[in-house]
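Quick one:
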Amino acid sequence: MKRTIWSIRILFIILCFAGSCIYWINHPDLSREGILVVFAMGVIFGISTVALDYLLEGFSLKGLSAVVIGLGLGAMVAYLITVSPFVKVFEEHDLFAIKSCLYVFFMYVGTMIALRNREELSMVIPYVRFSNQSSVSESLILDISSLIDGRIATICQSRFITYMLLVPKFVLEELHANLNSEDMQKQLKGRKGVETFNKLKNMSYIEMKVLDSELSEGQEVNAKVVFLAKAQNSKVLTTDYNLAKLAECSNIECLNINVLKKALNPEVAVGQYLDVDLVKAGKEPHQGVGYLSDGSMVVVNEAFDFIGKTVAAEVISILPSAGGKMIFARIHAQG
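Output:
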């Protein structure tokens, strides 16, 4: 994509130079200095236009809409002031300068206010959304806990995620703040989050975008994420229980990786055979104890001699416990 864009930019500069050549052909009486000026103006115009395009590369359509609205509101306020009796007290030769200053001032202020509050503006003045009914294009906003957790990268590698991933800029800023913290635990979390972000960014089959949203500095991060999800008509991906509850209260659909992990844990039934790594002795004589991937404890009868090994065990009963499930089994064969 970048190669295509730069090819078009170079072609545009060449066309500007070609335009200078056409002007020179149509004006054969130009002096040598005039010809150089024409060629220089064509090239400078092309390079300046490409440079402006490069500077506006991160400028979103929503930002452009905010600029237009800000200019319009500023011009409206300036017009109402210039037609009011307040400016009629000035001399006629001063009115043009005064009106010009009013227009420049209010259009500038209106633009800055609209840009700083473009997310709120999209809630007050809803933008028209065009959607193709034949295809579903949805997005997920990642919070800081999902990036620090890191499992989202593995899920995306499996290609189960087809959403566009949105990462708010304030989430990245918080990650970098942790990375530069003196607290070792925060440094580790920040490093893990940045590594996860870089992995996702390098996945060609995942579409990811950084949301450059300027919200209130004093606002809680979870509240910012929920507000953005509502403004973007997006879902939230997290491992944070508090954020999940806040999103639920705000009628925002939330995908919790911990809930997904629990849902993917295999169901165990009586009579099923399990491969169990026995790690310690049980409370009763001749018992061996192991654990499943979801943390469930498996107590195997007559397995004391196999501690430290893997055995195949048949499930004979399952009891619920505070930590999940306690599974009782009898040894079937050594693995």
